[in-house]
Design a protein that fits this description.
Order of helices and strands: EEHHHHEEEEEEH
Largest sheet: 8 strands, antiparallel
Number of strands: 8
Structural class: alpha+beta
CATH topology: Alpha-D-Glucose-1,6-Bisphosphate, Chain A, domain 4
Shape: globular
CATH superfamily: START domain
Length: about 160
């Protein structure tokens, strides 16, 4: 087993670091994603940033997500139901998660840094203990998944 790290690109979010952190620190707040993703106005607004096929993939995944204060669960092919649970909050800079019910133990960090009085930047980092066989199978899906999750989180209306 060796520890592998996967990072998203840095995303600029048009809300303050404190505002974004407050919403992300209680995962019930992110349930709004399920409602927004089906809204035609939202889809039109994000169509310029996210290709239609990718938006459809995100919509399919989001429909299956379940939220509570400290965890989010979804069905991840071919792994099955995977839960991420918050294990640490460092207001307003970082939220750390670890998997539960996952054949691949991993940790996820959401890092937030201020850019201005009205913007912050976000980066996701995933660390997983992978043997060489599993690494070959899951590296590409993990890289894509981290980037898609970052894109989705950057599109949330944090001020609403």
């Amino acid at each position: 087993m060796s520890q592998q790290q996967f990072e998203s690109s840095v995303k600029i979010i048009p809300y303050t670091q404190e505002c974004v952190y407050a919403k992300m620190a209680n995962l019930n707040n992110l349930a709004v994603i399920k409602e927004r993703i089906e809204d035609p106005n939202f889809r039109t607004a994000v169509a310029q940033k996210v290709p239609a096929d990718k938006l459809e993939q995100i919509a399919e995944r989001v429909k299956e997500m379940k939220f509570d204060t400290d965890s989010v669960s979804c069905n991840v092919s071919p792994l099955g139901e995977v839960s991420l649970q918050i294990i640490e909050r460092e207001e307003p800079k970082c939220i750390k998660f670890e998997t539960a019910n996952s054949p691949i133990p991993l940790n996820l960090w959401i890092q937030l840094l201020p850019v201005s009085d009205t913007q912050c930047k976000m980066k996701l980092t995933v660390r997983a203990d992978l043997n060489p066989f599993i690494k070959a199978m899951v590296s590409k899906p993990l890289i894509e998944g981290v980037e898609k999750l970052a894109e989705m989180l950057a599109l949330i209306p944090y001020g609403a």
